[in-house]
Specification:
Structural class: mainly alpha
Number of strands: 2
Oligomer: single chain
Radius of gyration: 12 Å
Distance between the termini: 32 Å
Largest sheet: 2 strands, antiparallel
Order of helices and strands: HEEHHH
Helix content: 40-55%
Shape: globular
Number of helices: 4
Number of domains: 1
């Protein structure tokens, strides 16, 4: 699976699969999407970055993904 979800597949995901569930952004249904969320982190609005960083780390732990971005790691501490 690549890091792109079609409209129908994204629509069928539960809110809990998103890094920002209230906005249904940054879907993370598998390891590839966790890595994609990490790489697209810079596009997240500043005020939502701590929440997204924590969601990325939680999903990364679930799928065995090593988060290497110092930016994501620093926001997760907030």
């Amino acid at each position: 699976m690549n890091d792109r979800l079609g409209y129908k597949a994204k629509k069928e995901l539960p809110d809990s699969m998103f890094g920002l569930p209230e906005r249904r952004e940054y879907p993370m249904p598998d390891a590839a999407h966790v890595r994609a969320a990490e790489s697209y982190f810079r596009y997240c609005p500043e005020e939502l970055r701590p929440k997204l960083a924590k969601a990325i780390l939680a999903r990364a732990a679930e799928y065995g993904v090593d988060v290497e971005s110092p930016t994501v790691l620093s926001y997760a501490k907030e």
